[in-house]
Amino acid sequence: MLIQSHTGTINIFPAIPEDWQNVAFDQLRAEGAFLVSAEMKTGEVQKVEINSLKGGILKVHNPFSGNFESSVKYQRKENILIFDTNVDDIIILIRK
């Protein structure tokens, strides 16, 4: 499974086979009107890009095992990243 969002929180690569070390997807639709793209190399998430089509609260389970940078401010509640988005906002998360 590449993406999951039915709980209201987007999960990136929640259930992929262990031998899928290099995998990516582009613009998969998630609940809440978000388009999600992500890339994993050598088993580590490298980049996540999320386009907010209608605005609103975006919750993402932190997909990174280490440090990352975000293109916009966010709040963190345990391992959930929370973004307040507007229409057509693009959130980019990149592994450091």
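^ that was protein a. below is b, sequence first then the tokens
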Amino acid sequence: MAVRSAQATWNGTLKEGNGTMKVGSGFFEGPFTFASRFEEGKGTNPEELIGAAHAGCYSMFLSALLTNAGFKPNRINTTATVYLGAGPTITKIELNTEADVPGLDEATFAEKAAAAKQGCPVSKALASVEIELTARLLA
């Protein structure tokens, strides 16, 4: 299986410092600061990147489950909202997904959506975090 990497550099103190995060493929590099992580400053943060990874992983895994069940998804769109609480600790992730899958019934969709929440590799890696799922099949 694949091995992936990313890197981060932090310069200076916690509140006055700054850094960059970069994925190994080079397709994303973004700045981050105390303000971008804990307040509303410009830049990215680790939680936002975890959310992107989780949304992408979930969407792909749900597509695989649906395809293996004989359905061909047109589109699956997932948003992951990551909550950072005291500690700091990631306390919860909300996955909200919408799927356009011709011929799929609600019951099968609900079953596959729940299975994808449990089975996607990022969900498994985040097993200590509460993950809530809202899934909607588009008509």
